[in-house]
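Data card: per-record layout.
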Amino acid sequence: MDVTSHLPLAPRDLLILAVLAEGPLHGYGIIKAVEARSSSGVLLDPANLYRVLRRMRALEWIREEEDGEERRRTHRIMPKGRAILAAELGRLERLLAQARPAMAKAR
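The structure for this 107-residue chain is written out next.
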């Protein structure tokens, strides 16, 4: 599986995958979790969220499940989504490692 063809991720996609990596959530839960983690002001309206979730399902990054008890649709990250998330986090960590020496010199 070539995950690098999906990188870099949009901040919204990264945050959605990150919150789903912690466990399955329904749409409203994803919106609230992303807002809570977003220091850069990533806000999701329901229409935008569900469009992104449809795309992620089509790419097999996540799957949708019916929660029989609450009659809600929950979303769960799939192995491909975890691989994409891990690759993006690794890419960002390498980028930061390269940028930090320049910041140290600038001080």
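Known properties of this structure: The domain at 8-106 is CATH 1.10.10.10 (Arc Repressor Mutant, subunit A). Residues 79-106 form the longest helix (28 residues).

See the next section for split statistics.
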